[in-house]
Amino acid sequence: MMAAEEPQTVTKTFLFTFPTCTNEEVRFKLEVPVEIPHDGSTRELVQRVINMFHIPVYLENELNEQLASFVAEETKNFHNERDAKLLDQLKNSELNVDGIVKNWEKIFKENVVEMCERDGSSDEEVFAAAYHKLVHSPALTAILALEGGYARTVLATLRQRDEDITNLTQKQTEEMEECVRLVNTFTTEAEINALAAKHFEQQAVAAGRWGSQLDALGHAQRARYRAWIMATLDDYHSSAPLTTPSNSPLSSFPPEAVGVDPAGAASTRLEESFTIHLGSQLKQTHNIRIVAMDLIDLCSIENDIDNPQGGPRRLQTALGLYGSELAGAVLLCEAPPARPAPPTTRLLRAAAASTEHHFPSADTQLHTITDRLKEPLEKRNSARHVSQGGGGGGGGGGAEEPRRRGRSSVQAGDVFVTRHSNLADVHVVFHLVVDDTLRSGDITSRHPAILGLRNILKACCNNDITSIALPLLLRHELTEEMTLGWCTRRAELVLKCVKGFMLEAAGGGGAELRTLSAAAPPATPRPLFHTLAALTPNIFRLSNPVKVKPAAD
Predict the structure, then answer these.
(1) Please, are residues 271 and 324 in contact by the beta-carbon 8 Å criterion?
(2) What does DSSP say about strands 27-36 and 10-19: parallel, antiparallel, or unpaired?
(3) 326 has which bridge partners?
(4) Which of 280, 154, 306 minimizes the C-alpha distance to 225?
(5) 3-state SS, residue 201
(6) DSSP for 46-63?
(7) Which of 134-143, 183-192, 322-331, 477-486 has the lowest average pLDDT?
């Protein structure tokens, strides 16, 4: 039998009397509630009482002595009464001793686990070390071939899913058209509604079935892949020492495997590269690329799947996965992670084309981000509500605004990050939240999206990301309002702000951002692209060779 839960504290009334200055027979009575046990300072409580009740200052010492004595006495009585009750309950077998012991044991273990230093490495750290060692060895070819085989299996399953759902949709469409054609003749509106509900249920069942199959395939491939990595490392340790070859792993590939990717060879991509210097005294060299491309092309691996050795892009990504030269990309999103919209949905499709062997899947990461965002967003909305005057009378619209903002999730300028090992050229994706204000050509350097870029570049330098690709116009597609002047002003603003952010991030230490790719929309006309590329020499200091003319004889 468990005893009733005892209160942790009790409130006692401290009584203090003192005479008036003119007549000692007239005494004032002061009653102050004090929480016992009192976890604060009695001197601090005395000062609060003096200021609140306007007690004469010459009574401070006497009041402090009596209050300290009262707190000590009442605390001793509280503990004695509590202990006496517990002893009586123990004698009467009213306490669950086993439960108390188990609770203490649990608390002790949690405290020890939290405070003590870990002696061993986690499974994730062991696997990361094994993969990093193997990927910088002759086993790199086998690793990429295994990943390619797994990716081809996933793609085949995705094609089967799409074909099955397409056939089901076509069949349902024909049934619905036939049913609608015979309405009021052989069918009724109720039968049409029932058929629509049946079709919806069939679609949900098909999507759930294929989703379960893909999840099971991904878990099986992930388990086999990790087991193979560890077994391969053991084989190398037992047979010969595993060393990094002196030559580059690229030399073990046939010449055709190291060329440009098929997508780049098939289509002419507009691109300009510049080598720039930043800094006045201690100059730093960076590479700036102005390119017209879709940033999702950096993520898609479908062009490299058919290559038995993984392709040059996957090779470079694998070599830098656990290194200090990571690659990142910035994607603009107008929706929270819980309800992704393009281009986030396109990223999810690219990530789903192969199994994620090192990190949680992209969908899982977005769900985790959604859960972790709740508390900081509530704090931010609460702080904004307080700064705007709290619940003061500001009319119905003013009171509704904080509640509406409290229900909102992310805002323009917020950034959330996902990690990937199964994309073509990217390890980290920064999802920059934007809104419709970017459609205007009059934004300034204090716009939330520009400040979001500042935070992204700072995060790159703090987390070993040395290559980053970002949208030059802060738009992924060209629209009607994006005229030549609009695009020129936007590109100039972004490049100037990026230049300042790079200087600021470099001054804070960390990794050096070596390559910056500014991507214009893929449908950018050639004259517009050359205009945008011509801005770079005017904003950055280029690294040009010095031409010396020979002296005349």
Answers:
(1) no
(2) antiparallel
(3) 465
(4) 154
(5) helix
(6) HHHHHHHHT--GGGHHHH
(7) 183-192
User: Which residues, listed in sequence order, are joined to residue 183 by a DSSP beta bridge?
Assistant: 187
What are 540's two structure tokens? 């950055």
- 517, 468 Cβ separation under 8 angstroms: yes
* Cα separation, 335 vs 328, whole angstroms: 20
Chain mean position to CA 101: 41
**Residues near 9 by Cβ (< 8 Å), separated by ≥ 6?**
35, 36, 37
- In 3D space, the residue among 421, 424, 229 whose CA is nearest the CA of residue 311 turns out to be 424
Contact 488, 535 (CB under 8 A): yes
Query: CA 536, CA 542: separation in Å to the nearest integer?
Result: 9
Cis peptide before 343 (omega within 30 of 0): yes
Work out whether the CA dihedral 109, 112, 114, 118 comes out positive or negative: negative
| β-bridge pairing 465-471 and 428-433 | unpaired
Whether the predicted pLDDT of 406 surpasses 50: no
* Paired tokens of 478: 């060209």
Decide: 508 and 464 in contact? Cβ < 8 Å.
no
Structure confidence by residue, pLDDT tens digits, 273-322:
998 888 766 778 889 999 999 999 988 887 666 665 556 778 888 999 99
Q: Where are the domains of the chain?
A: 10-114, 123-239, 265-390+402-542
Task: Of 432, 520, 436, give the one whose Cα is nearest residue 484.
Answer: 520
Q: What is the DSSP string of 216-247?
A: HHHHHHHHHHHHHHHHHHHHHHHHS-----SS
Confidence of residue 123 (pLDDT cuts 50, 70, 90): confident
Inter-helix orientation angle 189-239/140-181, to 10°? 170
How far is residue 467's CA from residue 461's CA, in Å, rounded to a whole number?
10
Which SS3 state, helix, strand or coil, does residue 135 take?
helix
Structure tokens at 38: 């009192």
419 Rama sector, left if φ>0, alpha if ψ -120 to 50, beta otherwise: beta
Using a pLDDT cut of 70, give the percent of the chain over it: 84
Which amino acid makes up residue 475? R
Question: Is residue 250 within 8 Å of residue 315, measured between CB atoms?
Answer: yes
Tens-place pLDDT, residues 174-225 = 999 988 888 778 888 888 899 999 999 999 999 999 999 999 999 999 999 9
CATH class of the region 265-390+402-542: alpha beta
The confidence band for 109, taking pLDDT boundaries of 50, 70 and 90, is confident
Q: Of how many residues is the chain composed? A: 553
Return the higher-pLDDT residue of 466 and 282.
466
Residue 52: pLDDT band by 50, 70, 90 thresholds? Answer: confident
